[in-house]
Write a structure and sequence with these properties.
heterodimer, A: alpha/beta, Rossmann fold, 3 domains, 6-stranded mixed beta sheet, 3-stranded antiparallel beta sheet, globular, B: mainly alpha, ABC transporter involved in vitamin B12 uptake, BtuC, 12 helices, 80% helix, 0% strand
């Protein structure tokens, strides 16, 4: 077994009288990619914040092993428009960064040409790559990525997941990330943990995909799964390929995707 | 007369040079209302200074710093929204200050001077306070520039990377408190925040990096002081408001004149 980096032990989180998470156990190893999936509001981000010590667990504990060094990529980057900031300066803010590492890291994430651009003008995909670069500059042995492909089109998502896997291979670091779509991350992930207030199921992507708990949560097949989620949460914006969602999941009264 | 003007100029420049760079942080972190609150409470500091017969500058610094600490503590409790909290503290401390001043029968206080500033009334001691406080703030700003900026850009990233986030946030609030305390003599309780945010806002139009924006803000603040004093000397206008009007004019010019390429 490879080196353990961090362990979440019996984590429970309670906001007021609402139990958001209970009995979560996850162990993160060097060189392993663990993907968290779960519906909106299932507590994925909160769980990641707990690992990062940005959120205190109500019960249970987080064990961070001595060698642990985290590179964190937040869900989004909001920088006040009144703050002029270039990509280079943004990356220079990493604590204890060696300025010489900035250019090679930008090369690694595929945006070397943006070094002197203002961060406000970057596209969704470029911003995600910039955030990944910032996480890498912290010289991590564990990358923690909160929806690393947010705001990126499907091709870009596949590329980004590929990039993350490449980085894992190069650095032999652990990766702990949140994804909405099991299908897209399957090829690049070792372990999937399906969370909805508690751990519904976990294992290899194939195991999780076939697991009854996963199917109950996301619908019958993986392709249905991602579309079904979006159909329910944004039931008026899905595209024409929404036809995939036909059988095997229950329509709520607010579900309008047969209307057009 | 010349000596009076020189002192006013020196005092004004000292304040503007440090209020500008710090003002950049106030703008970036949307702390303008926080600054206003501390400024309003400064009048209470003046009243307390007279009542307890202690140095006014000292009383103001202590009160501003104290209020900043109270704010931090109250904010953590999340009892009410921060802007409401600030509004309550700002106006109740200003009113309390005005009420307290009215009890001071034996001292005649020029209230207008404290509300709107009286640059020409600056004493030698005031200058020491301005330059002492100003240098301290400037030194801390330079020393902690990167942590302060990292915190401003994204607090969570800063925390995960190991910056002492809470301490740095407190430091920034204390710096603002000190600047307000020493700047009060120049532009007065009601106009202090403008000396921080107007030059910084103007500077945004001209800057590509945070350092540039902070530096230009200081320079623009100094220009406003010079312009305000000049206007005050020539047309006998009130100095504090003249400085602010000058800063506002620079802002208007920067944002209306066509530029080759706007920094965005």
């Amino acid at each position: 077994m490879s080196t353990r980096l961090a362990e979440l032990k019996d984590i429970g989180i309670r906001f007021g009288d609402r139990q958001l998470l209970s009995n979560i156990n996850i162990t993160l190893h060097q060189g392993e990619i663990v993907t968290l999936i779960g519906p909106n509001g299932s507590g994925k981000s909160t769980l990641i914040r707990t690992l990062l010590d940005l959120q205190q667990p109500s019960s249970g504990s987080v064990i961070r092993h001595n060698t642990l060094r985290i590179g964190y990529m937040p869900q989004k980057l909001h920088i006040d428009p009144t703050l002029p900031l270039t990509v280079k300066h943004f990356l220079g803010l990493v604590r204890g960064v060696n300025k010489k590492d900035i250019t090679p890291t930008l090369n690694k994430v595929g945006i070397p040409h943006l070094e002197n651009s203002q961060v406000h003008v970057l596209s969704g995909g470029e911003t995600q790559r910039l955030l990944l670069a910032r996480a890498l500059l912290n010289r991590p042995n564990l990358l923690v990525l909160d929806e690393p492909v947010q705001g990126v089109d499907v091709n870009g998502q596949i590329e980004l997941y590929g990039l993350i896997a490449t980085i894992r291979d190069e650095l032999n670091c652990g990766v702990f990330m949140i994804s909405h779509d099991l299908h897209l991350v399957m090829a690049q992930t070792d372990t999937v943990v399906c969370v909805n207030q508690h751990v519904c199921c976990s294992g290899s992507p194939q195991q999780v995909k076939d697991h009854p708990a996963y199917r109950a949560l996301f619908g019958v097949s993986g392709a249905d799964a991602s579309l079904a989620i979006y159909a329910h949460h944004h039931d008026h914006v899905h595209d024409d390929s929404g036809e995939v969602v036909e059988e095997g999941h229950v329509h709520s009264s607010s579900c309008k995707h047969h209307a057009h | 007369m010349l000596e009076l003007l020189m002192r006013a100029l020196l005092g004004g420049l000292g304040v503007a040079a440090v209020a500008g760079p710090l003002g950049a942080f106030v703008v970036w972190r949307r702390m303008a209302y926080f600054g206003d609150t501390l400024a309003h409470s400064a009048l209470l500091g003046v009243a307390l200074g007279f009542l307890l017969d202690i140095n006014l500058n000292l009383a103001i610094v202590v009160l501003c710093v104290g209020l900043a600490l109270v704010l931090v503590a109250l904010q953590k409790k999340h009892i009410i929204a921060t802007d409401t909290l600030l509004g309550i503290l700002a106006h109740s401390s200003l009113s309390l200050g005005l009420v307290a001043v009215s009890f001071l029968d034996n001292v005649r206080i020029d209230l207008m001077a404290y509300l709107f500033g009286d640059l020409l009334a600056i004493s030698q001691t005031d200058l020491y306070w301005i330059y002492g406080g100003g240098l301290l703030v400037m030194a801390l700003l330079v020393a902690f520039w990167r942590p302060l900026l990292a915190l401003t850009v994204n607090e969570e990233l800063a925390k995960v990377e190991g910056y002492p986030v809470e301490a740095i946030r407190l430091l920034l609030m204390l710096l603002v408190a000190v600047v307000i305390a020493v700047a009060m003599k120049i532009v007065g309780v009601l106009l202090i925040t403008s000396l921080m945010i107007i030059p910084a806002a103007t500077s945004r139009k001209l800057s590509q990096t945070p350092v540039q924006m902070a530096t230009f803000a200081g320079v623009l603040g100094c220009l406003s002081v010079c312009g305000g004093l000049w206007a005050s000397y020539h047309w006998d206008t009130p100095t504090g408001p003249s400085v602010v009007v000058c800063a506002a004019l620079l802002f208007l010019i920067a944002y209306t004149l066509p530029t080759r390429k706007m920094a965005s």
